[in-house]
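Internal QA ticket QA-208
Title: Verify multi-chain structure generation after dependency bump
Assignee: T.L.

Test input:
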Amino acid sequence: MNEALQRLRGNAPVQLLLGLAIGVGFGACLQIAGVTRYDVILGQLLLTDFTVVKVMLSAVAVGTVGVYLMRGAGLADLHIKPGSVGATVVGGIIFGAGFAVLGYCPGTVAGAVGSGALDALVGGVTGILIGAGIFAALYPRLEASVLGVGALPTATIPDLLRVNPWAVVVPLVLAIAVVLYGIELAGL
Amino acid sequence: MDWTPYIAGAGIGVLSWLAFLLSDRPIGCSTAYARTSGMIEHAVRGKAVLDRAYYKQFAPKVDWEWMLVLGVVIGAGATALLTGAFALVWVPPAFEAAFGPSVPLRLAVALAGGVLMGIGSRWAGGCTSGHGISGTLQLALSSWVAVFVFFASGILFAFLLYGVTP
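Actual output:
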């Protein structure tokens, strides 16, 4: 790996500034797309407005090609999250309930705060902080019980299928293009 | 046809390249809230909080992802000001149309939803960013499972909440 790149990654103060800068760009994208609005997120969950799906799928299509190209060139490493039925599925169900009731997620709630949504600031952020604190307090008991149940492999789909990553990346990008085209055709 | 969501989505994709290349990190948001919660609890209740097993994994301090979430507030705020979309709103229009204009009601509902979201995102090990975009673009199995469950559950609860019968 490039030495300059390694030095950059090891420079803690510069990394904090990079995190901030990437966050500013991320927030600008979320705001331009309109997904910092409660109405747009609830519209997605009520299946009347597909803006959230359009943003996420185009981010994934562009992101996956670049990240796998950089990985092939030795410039990027993957960071695959572990998961299990007890953690990913049970936590995901609780997340979904929060998603519908709050109408923002942890990234879009921060963007909503910036755009002036006071329900996001006073209700949403406060609630997420309380919820994260409750989880931290319950963590030892949850870890000893539900979180490990039905472990999923910490692996990528191409690794599990034992194929070249591009055998998944290319069909995925094509599938995303077809889905988005279908959404536009349906006028959603 | 409106290209805005696609341009914004592609922009997020490019930002994720930069995050992997320059910082060796995926974009994610939910651990920043866990760290902040730990910082607040530490300030209120003292050092014992730092002994919690969870905060040994996610130390209650400002890190890259914390700065990213701060950046999201700034980036979305600046964009909203520049485009004239900035507005102080207590009750979003769709909520008001369904449940009325009560500010305390919206705040109570948002608080309850936030608590669920805070628990759920840490329980699942990520959110719509960390699993939904960064995990899926890496083709991680756990993240594809997570994002499918997030939306299936979110759609179910939204339909229940808004009293829509499928």
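Spot checks passed. The first helix of chain B runs from residue 4 to 23.
Status: verified.
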